[in-house]
Amino acid sequence: SASSSPSGRSSAAENLERREKQWGGHVLEHYSGESFRQQILPLAEEPSRCIKLRNLYPAQPRPSGVEFEELEAGVLHKLTQYGGVLHCFLDRWTDEGALYAKLDSADAATSVIAALHGTWYNSRLVKAEYVPLPEYHRLFPSSKYASKLMFPP
């Protein structure tokens, strides 16, 4: 059972509200012009059920372990709004601020890319792209056998 805060709201509800507030609107809501639009829109790629979201966190200062856990939970929460997530990996060792995910269908991945590419997350512009399935399995061999849907804590 979820614990209650002094305000009487459950900590689970507060976590959900905080995670949603981290996502901002789409960059195209604030800017116009075809050249800007071309810079922001993803390149035409072969759809895959695997994706990479970049620029979720800054290279410096690198987030702490707890911040990484909250980031992963928040993004996983957002991904599950578009489809089932079979595998998720937050890359803590590069400067890309990247999270990789394998969804249950290419349609779900396409929905994620359409919804999140060019949006703001913690005041950072998110870039989303497909990762070809063979490349994803090369990066994350165990994901080849992932069959259980993931849910945020």
Structural account:
It is a single chain. With 153 residues, the protein is an alpha+beta fold. It is 33% helix and 20% strand. It contains 5 helices and 7 strands. The strands form 2 sheets. The chain has a 4-stranded antiparallel beta sheet. The radius of gyration is 16 Å and the shape is globular. Mean pLDDT is 81; it is low at 1-5.
List low-confidence stretches: 1-5
Structural class: alpha+beta
Nearest-integer average pLDDT:
81
Name the strands of the widest sheet in spatial order: 3-4-2-7
Identify the overall geometry.
Answer: globular
Strand content: 15-25%
Q: Span from first to last CA? A: 13 Å
- H-E order: HEHEHEEHEEEH
Question: How many beta strands in the DSSP annotation?
Answer: 7
Helix content: 25-40%
Chart the SSEs and their pairings:
Elements: H1 11-21, E1 23-26, H2 34-40, E2 50-54, H3 65-79, E3 85-90, E4 99-103, H4 106-116, E5 119-121, E6 124-125, E7 127-131, H5 133-139
Antiparallel strand pairs: 1-5, 2-4, 2-7, 3-4, 5-6
How would you sum up this structure in a few lines?
By secondary structure, the protein is of the alpha+beta class. 33% of the residues lie in helices and 20% in strands. The chain has helices spanning 11-21, 34-40, 65-79, 106-116, 133-139; strands at 23-26, 50-54, 85-90, 99-103, 119-121, 124-125, 127-131.
